[in-house]
């Protein structure tokens, strides 16, 4: 697959009104392949919007390179880049009807009327708004307005669509519907998407690849499952999903794996892994859903503790357990908890597979 976007060593600093300097992008490298759905994810202020604005041409970089479809974007103004942005606020022209809003980019470029009308018709069909051409934005629902914004951005078939929190103004249900539609549309059109969101669930379900940013630096770039199951460092582990993260030291190495100890005396097991030596320090990641209340089979490790809190979530139970040595353990366990009839203060065992635990070396943690 050819690369649509290449960002090399992008650096961008802002001078703040208070007289300080903010490093919004601190040596960012990003490649987006043709047809890829890439999500930029990170806390507020991590540089997501700055990176999008640099790609679209609204924010010149201090240093670094940007190529779109192999062409350097040095000195190329936003309107001449093969890129459109869809914003959370839709940014529609309120006085124009839907057809004029969508056809605007083609009108500006002087596309012949017949071709223009055909393209507008096609793209409205695509986003499910055929027959609403004459409505003005105020006569549409939030979800419909977002579809117009999408249609407008897609009408001249850009190589790349940038989406800056496009769904965050929608309520939960509509948001989920739009997530599915957007993903379907992206697949159908084969256009590369760079999508910005705060919402980790949205990122995990929609993306081919997630790029996690913090403090203007890329922390990790990978497929959703890789980011979730094998985070590169403690920041990513803590930012995505619920996590139990314990600072531990390697105490012993056996044929099955490693025995790890917390300073409280609590012991954990980690599956076989290359490069581990006795005395190494790091953090162990165990996701709440990796625990079981009954031993699922051979080779599982156990953690004893007492139920401190429990909540029924409709399908699963969410438990807060205090381990024998005083560690807090979050566990999400399925239905079997019904038969066990949980009570606060009850002594229980939590089982986990040592090979599903993830070790973060101190240097990367
Ligand atoms: N024009 C500007 N002048 C000064 N500082 C800026 C400017 N634009 C952005 N910043 C700063 O640069 C950093 C990165 O901002 P950016 O908008 O890229 O973050 P973000 O990840 O998109 O955040 P959010 O999720 O809140 O939108 C922040 O610290 C922000 O305050």
From TrEMBL:
Pfam families (UniProt xref): ABC_tran, TOBE_2
Enzyme class per UniProt: translocase
GO CC list: ATP-binding cassette (ABC) transporter complex
Subunit: The complex is composed of two ATP-binding proteins (PotA), two transmembrane proteins (PotB and PotC) and a solute-binding protein (PotD).
UniProt key word Acetylation: no
Catalytic activity: ATP + H2O + polyamine-[polyamine-binding protein]Side 1 = ADP + phosphate + polyamineSide 2 + [polyamine-binding protein]Side 1
Gene Ontology molecular function terms on file: ABC-type polyamine transporter activity; ATP binding; ATP hydrolysis activity
Primary role: Part of the ABC transporter complex PotABCD involved in spermidine/putrescine import. Responsible for energy coupling to the transport system.
UniProt entry keywords in alphabetical sequence: ATP-binding, Cell membrane, Membrane, Nucleotide-binding, Translocase, Transport
Keyword Cell membrane among UniProt keywords: yes
UniProt similarity note: Belongs to the ABC transporter superfamily. Spermidine/putrescine importer (TC 3.A.1.11.1) family.
Domain ABC transporter per the UniProt entry, residue ranges: 5-240
PROSITE patterns (alphabetical): ABC_TRANSPORTER_1, ABC_TRANSPORTER_2
Top-level taxon: Bacteria
Protein name (database record): Spermidine/putrescine import ATP-binding protein PotA
Matching SUPFAM superfamilies: MOP-like (SSF50331), P-loop containing nucleoside triphosphate hydrolases (SSF52540)
Gene: potA
Enzyme Commission designation: 7.6.2.11
């Amino acid at each position: 697959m050819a690369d649509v976007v290449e960002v090399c060593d992008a650096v961008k600093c802002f001078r703040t009104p208070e007289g300080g300097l903010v490093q919004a992008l601190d040596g960012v490298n990003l490649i987006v392949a043709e047809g890829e759905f890439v999500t930029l994810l990170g806390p507020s202020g991590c540089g997501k919007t700055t990176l999008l604005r640099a790609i679209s041409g609204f924010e010149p970089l201090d240093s670094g390179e940007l190529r779109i479809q192999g062409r350097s974007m040095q000195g190329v103004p936003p309107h001449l880049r093969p890129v459109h942005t869809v914003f959370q606020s839709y940014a529609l022209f309120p006085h124009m009807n839907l057809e004029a809003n969508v056809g605007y980019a083609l009108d500006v470029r002087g596309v012949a009327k017949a071709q223009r009308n055909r393209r507008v018709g096609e793209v409205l069909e695509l986003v499910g708004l055929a027959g609403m051409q004459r409505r003005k934005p105020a006569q549409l629902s939030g979800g419909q307005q977002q579809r117009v914004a999408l249609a407008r951005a897609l009408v001249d078939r850009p190589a790349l669509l940038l989406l800056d929190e496009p769904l965050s103004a929608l309520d939960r249900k509509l948001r989920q519907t739009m997530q599915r539609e957007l993903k379907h549309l992206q697949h159908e059109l084969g256009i590369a998407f760079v999508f910005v969101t705060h919402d980790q669930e949205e990122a995990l379900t929609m993306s081919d690849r997630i790029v996690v940013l913090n403090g203007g630096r890329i922390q990790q770039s990978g497929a959703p499952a890789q980011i979730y199951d094998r985070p590169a460092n403690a920041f990513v582990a803590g930012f995505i999903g619920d996590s139990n993260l314990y600072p531990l030291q390697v105490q012993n190495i056996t044929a099955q794996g490693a025995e790890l100890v917390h300073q409280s005396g609590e012991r954990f097991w980690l599956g076989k892994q290359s490069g581990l030596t006795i005395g190494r320090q790091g953090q162990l990641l165990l996701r709440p859903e990796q625990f079981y209340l009954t031993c699922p089979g051979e080779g599982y490790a156990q953690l004893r503790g007492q139920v401190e809190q429990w909540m029924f979530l409709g399908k699963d139970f969410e438990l807060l357990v205090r381990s024998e040595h005083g560690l807090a353990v979050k566990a999400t366990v399925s239905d079997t908890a019904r038969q066990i009839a949980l009570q606060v203060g009850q002594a229980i065992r939590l089982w986990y597979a040592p090979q599903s635990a993830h070790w973060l070396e101190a240097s990367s943690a």
